[in-house]
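Fold sample X.
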Amino acid sequence: MVETAPRTVHFHQKHHRAVVSGEKVTTVRWNESVQVGAATFVFDDHPTAGPLPGTITAVNRHRLDTLTAEQAHQPPGTDMRRFGRQLREDYYPDMPDDAVVEVAELSIAPS
């Protein structure tokens, strides 16, 4: 059996508390090829947070222009057009409206 090193998944530092508390259990990504399995979660530019061992437990692909709040694990009634615009503004400026995004479910290792 071949073991591979955990993949690194980067997050904005603002997501650290939500990931650690278990409030944030998904992430929506574009062009990052997130895969199920062991992962190391890194919080870019966080002044004190080190890498966290975790797991990507599932990855589902959806077209951004048809992505529902339920598929993205967002609260009911979330304006998904605005959600897509925010992804573009904050992370993926070149992402087209019909992009296929990955909704990755995650968990951290118990401490």
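Fold sample Y, listed below.
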Amino acid sequence: MTAVDSPDETRQTRAELAVWFGGASTGCWLVCPFWILVVFVALPLALVGLVRAGIEYRASKTGATSRRRAVVGGALSLLGATAAIAYITFLATHPNLPVQGLGPN
């Protein structure tokens, strides 16, 4: 008999997290780039995805994870972080821009 949740399955499931975090941060832009979504969802997801991609890339040297998946997760996370930072910078440099009804009266 083998256990349903063997250590190899758990390791492989955890190894795919960079792609999920990167995809979620990039997916926020496909849904709608609301400023609240960017600040509290997209940017943190992208930063966690970048950290996770670095961990997974180092683990790929021992053969524990897929190097390609770590690179894809890192690329998606970098794209999400870059877009979030660019959007936040754009909003900060254009204070008179009405963003979701929060502009000047």
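Sample Y note: The two ends are 69 Å apart (CA to CA).
Also: Residues 1-6 have pLDDT under 50 and may be disordered.
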